[in-house]
Amino acid sequence: MNHRTKSLASLQSEINWDILVIGGGASGLGVAVDAASRGFKTILFEQYDFAKGTSSKSTKLVHGGVRYLAQGDIKLVSEALRERGLLAKNARHLFKTQKFIIPSYNWWGGPYYAFGLKLYDFLSKKLSLGPSRLVKKKSVIQMLPTLKTDNLFGGVSYFDGQFDDARLALNLAQTAEQHGATVLNYMKVLKLNKTDNNDISGVIVEDQETGNQFSVNGKVIINATGIFTDKILKMYNPKHKKTVVPSQGIHLMLDKSYLQGDTALMIPKTSDGRVLFIIPWYDKVIAGTTDTLIKKPKIEPVPLEEEVDFILDTINNYLTKKAERSDVLSVFSGLRPLAKPKKDETNTKEVSRSHKIIVDNNLVSIVGGKWTTYRKMAEDVVDKVIETYGYEKNPCKTKSISLVGNLSQNSEVPGNHLYIYGGQLNEYLEFEKSNEEYSEKIHPNYPYTKGQVVWSVRNEYVQTIEDFLSRRIRLLLLDSRAAIEAAHLVAATMAKELGQNGEWQERQIQEFTELANTYILN
Question: Of the candidates 43, 50, 91, 39, which has an alpha carbon nearest to the alpha carbon of residue 466?
């Protein structure tokens, strides 16, 4: 019996769930971990794969948000910095302390940013990752050898957190199950069930793999669907007011030669008033992001030409190595589910990233927020459920819950791309040794193997080659062309493991290739 079959059996054996979560991104998975660890019978449905949407397309930063400090949102920054510190303890295998430089091209820039970052340090308190410092011009050039030096005065260094968003989502799903929750990807909620009194009593879900439908009872439904929040709300009330403003952010992936080091660059003010990051990640460089108001949410948003040009123009103003469209290895786009402000706001960079909880009958919706604060958002949601519906007042435990894969305090984070397995690394390596074929690479330029494909199918809820190439390893984001080249071997390996035929393989390759081509700039 494979993993998904067990989860489906659990779905059908339980009559009444205490908490039924719709949405398998950061918010929903966080709620599942929190609720299950408090002892509530919890089930989660995700229409696609876990973190398929926005939650796998972030800037890969666990941070307080330097720009929110500049906007005066001290509460949000303080909360995010506390959460950053907790994640550094609870998911050490995915968390990296990243050094940043803010360059200064005038005499007052260094002292100005140094003052603000000292406040950032202070708000971090005991969970600080290291102090910010004024840095002389010579040291800035040593750390950022590709930075333009004309009129450079110096800079400021500070520390923030970096992570792998999709892998964290996976580990949250595994941790939720470890605490008794049932989590299912590729389960679409078709409608909300209602009693004669018009109270919400559960959902009708459809298994996207088989087409089978199930009626599932839930005392409280959590709507954690991000950019699709309003779609679920309108299942309950077709006239429900809009609650989410989708804002698109895109990122360009470039070769590591654009930075030539381990230090990240933060550009404090761009032509659109945002900050822009150029960050080393998985032996590549991420440049982003943008903030573009989008009217209609999509699961796979497409970057706009002007967004790509904006990032290229901005980084070329700061780096000596010029980046052209042809140099971009991949471009990925995500939609932020910003909570709609009371007044119509067209400038989404000014919309707060704080979260809001909306209660409608037995439906609780979480809107807004960001990856860094996912744990606190989940805590607030479950606290709201306890307060509103009279659930047993079990205290939140997630501040100290070690996520699946976490390393012991004294462990060194393993090198190369296998660090993602963390505390399961030795178990994985033994698995790879068990079959001679498993050590075969899926692409000559990258370390990923056939063994990782099989492991992911057996242990990591993988149903499609996109699940593997995009979110279990990050090859689609790192190098879209290489991901397309690897697709045939991945499809063949998965088909053997899942008992699928050649027709399934061809369909998987075609669908993945069509998607991957949207990550390539023409």
Answer: 50
Q: How far is CA 92 from CA 57, 100, 442, 473, 513, in A?
A: 21, 20, 27, 18, 34
DSSP string, 406-461: PPPTTPPPPSSGGGGGGGGHHHHHHHHHTSGGGGSBSSTTS--BHHHHHHHHHHS-
Sign of the torsion formed by the C-alpha atoms of 12, 18, 24 and 30: negative
- Domain 96-161+245-341 shares a fold with domain 417-517: no
- The Cβ of residue 170 has, within 10 Å, a number of other Cβ atoms equal to 29
Instruction: Give me the architecture of the 3-54+166-243+349-389 domain, per CATH.
Output: 3-Layer(bba) Sandwich (3.50)
Where do the domains of the chain lie? 3-54+166-243+349-389, 96-161+245-341, 417-517
Q: Is the peptide bond before 289 cis (omega within 30 degrees of 0)?
A: yes
Examine the pLDDT at 350 and tell me if it is beyond 50: no
pLDDT at 416 exceeding the cut of 70 = no
Q: Which two tokens stand for residue 1?
A: 């019996």
Structure tokens of 55? 């939650």
Contact 296, 302 (CB under 8 A): no
CA separation for the pair 20, 41 (Å, rounded): 8
Secondary structure element (H or E) that encloses residue 469, with its range: none
Tokens of 358: 């909306």
Q: Which CATH class is domain 96-161+245-341?
A: alpha beta
3-class DSSP state for residue 168?
helix
Assess contact for 511 and 466: CB atoms under 8 A: yes
pLDDT in tens, 302-341: 999 999 999 999 999 999 999 999 999 999 999 999 988 7
- pTM of this prediction exceeds 0.90: yes
CB 487 within 8 A of CB 512: yes
- At the topology level of CATH, where does 417-517 sit? Helicase, Ruva Protein; domain 3 (1.10.8)
CA distance 398 to 382: 12
Task: Read off the pLDDT of residues 119-174 as tens digits, 9 standing for 90 and up.
Answer: 888 988 888 999 999 999 999 999 999 999 999 999 999 999 999 999 999 999 99
Token pair listed for 304:
């706009």
